[in-house]
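Let's inspect a concrete specimen:
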Amino acid sequence: MAAEELLVILTVTMNAAVDEAVAVDDFVLGGSNRCRLDALDAGGKGLNASRVIHRLNRLTIALGFVGGVTGQMVRARLDEERVLHAFDDVPELTRLNVMIYESSSGRRSRLYLPGATVAPERLGSLRTRLLQAHPGGTVILGGSLPPGLESSTYAALVSWLHERGVRAVVDTSGPALSAVLPARPLLIKPNVEEAAECLGCTLSGDDEVLAAALALRARGPANVVISQGEGGAIGVSAGGAWKALAPRVTARSTVGSGDSMVAGLTIALDEGGSLEDGLRLGTAAGAATAMIPGTQLCNVQDVERLLPEVDVKPIVRRSEVRLRSDRRDRD
């Protein structure tokens, strides 16, 4: 790709956060716990994707909404990492999420706040910022929707971007994921639990995960990747289906691994690669982040080292698998 054709990957984080990771020997519910701070980072799916895209030496700008002193911390953290950003301010504080690691058991618990309210009329300013996305470019919409915005918000943005020739990658869950499918995003990346919730079924094993990915793709997205944690990921597109397995690493934290995978997937697709290429880079980035403790993200050296070791193989579907419905009324 010629230098003049390089496009900036924009990311949108509607519900940004400050992620605080603390460690304690044994967490006593209802008691006093003396903890040590492991990490304090800017957080949110889209924002984390921008941080990883920047670390992988691509151009990116993080957009979204932040507020108050915690919002200032988000901006300061991105400034430290030299990640370009253009956030809109909201009156309420950006949320603080807490990750608790118990060293005696290895158990991890997460506390998520709902986030600062974003009024629907604030989306006009966001759309103005998104006009800098060039036709043929890619925008990542990531994370939960904050109080004040309807579940159809991402769907409306994907349709609006599509009209301008801009492709959208969406990484969300719940009603927002269900609502965005008919808008035909370039890619969605739920994990197994999120995919099962969206389809109203139980997923067990690769055959059922593959069937779920195909079912989700039939609803609109061009590409679907379902991440399976240590079990890898399954991706489907018009060109086929693949299973990706990461090389063995010592996992110290899974926080941000999915966001890192989204960054790798998006880079590959944005640069004209196939979903198979995206699975390879995304899996390497996700594994590299899992190697880092707390809320910290991958570094380019680890990603480059792991990339040749990622195993991506085409899937030949041998039989139809019927998804087991968990509710009477499916979407």
About this structure: The chain is about 35% helix and 25% strand. The mean pLDDT is 89. The longest helix spans residues 275-290. The first strand starts at residue 9 and ends at 13.
